[in-house]
Amino acid sequence: MAERKEKFYITTPIYYTNGLPHIGHTYTTVVADVLRRYKKMRGYEVVMTTGTDEHGVNVERAAKKADIPESEFVARMADAWRSLWDELGLTADEFVRTTDLSHVRTVQWLFKLCKENGYVYKGHYTGQYCIYDNAYVNDAKPGDPCPDCGRPTETVTEENYFFKLSAFQKPLLDFYQKFPNFIQPETRKNEIVSFVEGGLKDLSITRTTIRWGIPVPGEEPHVFYVWFDALTAYLSAVGGPEFEKRGMWPADVHLVGKDIIRFHTVYWPAFLMAAMLPLPKQVWAHGWFLMDAAKMSKSKGNVVLPRPIANMLGMDALRYFLLRDVVFGQDGNFSYDALVTRYNSDLANGLGNLASRTAAMLEKNFAGKIPKPGPRLPQDDTLAKEAQNAIGEVLERYDKFEFARALETVWSVIAAADKYLTTEQPWALGTSPDEESRKAAILWTTAELLRIVTVLAHPVLPDSTTKVWHLLGQSTLLGATQLDGLRWGQLTPGLTLGKFQALFPRVEKTEAIERIESMANEELNPTPAAAPTPAPAASTSAAGAAAVPVTAPAEKIGIDDFSKVEMRVGQIKTAERIVGADKLLKLTVDIGSEIRQICAGIAQFYEPESLIGRKVAVVVNLAPRKLRGVESNGMIVAASVGPEGRPVLAGFHEDVEVGARLK
Ligand code: ME8
To answer: Among 31, 95, 447, 508, which one is least packed by beta carbons within 10 Å?
Structure first.
C-alpha cells in the first residue's frame, strides 16, 4: 500500500457576513492559497479551509434591516463570499459555515468535553461589550469606546457559562516555551506572552441576550458566544468529533490578521487543552493593509475591492503585489499607484517580457523548438549557477513565510537573464555552424532559466506561469511538479513550443487606476444602468446592455414611449480590445453630429478590424455609463442569436446617410 503523504492543514479566519470581502480578507486568503499550492509542490497532502462566521448580534440586526430571516441573510452572504473566492481562483478545500449542522454539533461536543473536565461553570457577568467586534472590552467603564473600532461599548449583565481561562495561565506559558514557533512573528509572541503573564480572567462563553446563535443543549436560551463558536470551525472543517478519521487535525498553521491573534493564541489553545484535544502547531499573524494610514474597514468606508483589480490587471497581478510589496507580518499601505507600477515593472517588463522575447527568438531561430545547446561558455555556467542557487534560497524563504524575499530572489534571476541576453546578443549572431551553436546555447540557457522561474513562481502566479509552462512545451501539470526534484538542466531539447498567450500587457497608469476605481465605484454603488458584465439578451437587444432574459411577451408600449428612444445610423471609425475586459470592444462611432465612444459586448464574436467603416444602428440618447471602467456613450443595436446569445449587429442593405434617424 502506498504510504500516506505527510499532511498540512492551513486555515484562514472564517469571515463575518456583515459585508463582502475587501483586500484585507483577500490578502489572508491569497496567502493561504499560495501556501496550499506551495506545500503540494513540496509533496504534502494539503487541506485549506475558509468559511463564514454567521452568528451574533450584527447578523440579527442586519437581517432585521433587510427584513429577511437571519438564515436567509447568512445564506445569501455565504454564497456571495464563496462565489467571489471561486471567481478569484481562491477555492478552499472546505468552506465552513457556522450555521452548518456539522459545526453546530462540533461546538456542542467541545463544550461538553470542557464541562465534563471541570472547566465550565455558570455565573453572572457584567461588562462593557463591543457589539461590532463581538468582544467584551476588559477594564472598560460604561461609556468607554471600543479600543479597536472606537465606537461606544454597551454595558451587558447576564447569566453566562464561564470558561475557566484563569486555570490556563501556566499551561499556556509552558506551551509557548515548549513550542517557540507557535506564535509568529516573534514580536507578536512577546506581546501575547506578556498579556498572559499579566493574568487571565475567566471568559464568558454563552449569552442569553442573543437569539441568533448555536443553542447550548438543554440550557436554552443560552447560545454560544461568538469566539467559542467561531474558533471551533477549524475543527468542524476537518471532521469535528471524528477528526481522527480524517487525519488532518491539528492545524499546521492558522493564518490570521493581528487583530485576532489573542483569540487564536490564548482562548483557542485553552479550549483545546480543557477538552484534551491536540493543539494547532502554529498561528501566523500578518499585519494590516492600511488605506491612508488607517485600517481598512467596511464601517470606515475606505475599502479596496479585489474584483476590479483582478478584472483590470488579472488575479496573478494582485497576488503578486500583495505578497511582493509588504513584508509578511508587517503593516503595509495599499496604493493603486504602487500596484500598477509593480505590474508594469515586474510583470509586464519582467516575467512577461522575458517569456515573449525567449519565445520569439526560439520561433525565429529554431522553428519553435527547444534547441540542443552547443558548447557552454563560462557566462552560461554563471547564469546556471545563479538559477540553481535560487532554487534552495526560494524554498527556504517560502518555508519561513518570507514571500516578498522569495519573489525578490526569483526576480533577481529574471533580471540576470535580461542582462545575459543584452550581453550575449543572440540576435546579432549569424548563420555559420559556430554561431548557430552559440545561439542554441544562449537560447537553451534562457529557456531553462525561464522554466526554473516558472516553477518557483507558480504558487504566487498560478495562471500566468501555467501559460509559460505550456509555452515551453511542457505537458505535465505544473501544480503537481515537485519542487524538491527541480534542478538546472532538465529542459529537454527538441520540445515544440506551445502557443504564445499574452501574459501581462503593459497598461497606462492613470487610465488603469481610473478604470479600477470606476469599477470599484460601480460595485459599491450599483445602478441598474451599470451592468457589470455586459451580455446580450435573449431577444433583440442592444450589444452592451445587461442581460434581461425574456420569458414572457414584453408589455405593449405606446408610440410616445418608443419615440423617447433616439436611434441613429452610425459608422464605426475605430475599434479596439480593452485590457481586462474580454467581452468588450471600445468603438468610436460617427453619428452625424459628433463622434461618440461606445463600448459593445461583442469582442468574442467580432474582430475589431472587421468593423471599421461598418454602418450600425445606435441608441444615441442613452445616459453615459461606465463598463469595466470605460466610458460608454450610447449603445449599438444587435440581435441576440442562439442559446449563447451571439450578438449580430443590426445593419442596412441600402446605403444610408450617417446620422439618419431610425423611426
Ligand atoms: O475577525 N488588512 O472576521 P473578519 C489585513 N469572524 N487583513 C485584514 C484586514 C486588513 N485591513 N481586514 C481584514 C473575524 N483582514 C472573525 C474571525 S476566526 C475563528 C473568526 C483579514 O471578517 C485578517 O485576516 O473581521 C483578519 O484577521 C480577518 O480578515 C478578520 O475578518
So the answer is: 508
